[in-house]
Amino acid sequence: MLYGKEHVKRYQETDGAEGHDWQGTTTLLLTTTGRKTGKERTTPLIYEPEGDAYLVVASKGGADEPPLWYLNLQADPEVKVQVKGDRFTARARTATPEEKPPLWRKMVAAWPAYDEYQTKTSRDIPVVVLERV
């Protein structure tokens, strides 16, 4: 099973032939700029398409603190995305409270554990919208 740095490496090398399909769902690669280091960081994330955009969830498995990639995109919302062989620049934004409920349901359909993760924390787990620029 691929995960972490090896997942990223194989996904990039194979244009997602290895790593896109993962544990019954699909992943993309999200590259953010470190808010402290200025270095690029790439993370494989479960995603769902939403019109011309893509959705990801900043769950960190239900931890009380958000994942570092989410903090990074809050500081600099311009990100790089790879979906299979498609690489593009996107602007990341957190779904508004009004738009989140159907987007959350869509992501839970892709990865049911998100509902369980939300029960582990008082933090409102964000849905992030990645809009191609």
UniProtKB/TrEMBL annotation:
Q: What family does this chain come from, according to its entry?
A: Belongs to the F420H(2)-dependent quinone reductase family.
This protein is called what? Nitroreductase family deazaflavin-dependent oxidoreductase
Organism classification: Bacteria, Bacillati, Actinomycetota, Actinomycetes, Streptosporangiales
Name the catalysed reactions. Answer: oxidized coenzyme F420-(gamma-L-Glu)(n) + a quinol + H(+) = reduced coenzyme F420-(gamma-L-Glu)(n) + a quinone
Q: Where is this region: Disordered?
A: 1-25
Residue ranges annotated as compositionally biased, kind Basic and acidic residues, are 1-21
Pfam families reported for this sequence:
F420H2_quin_red
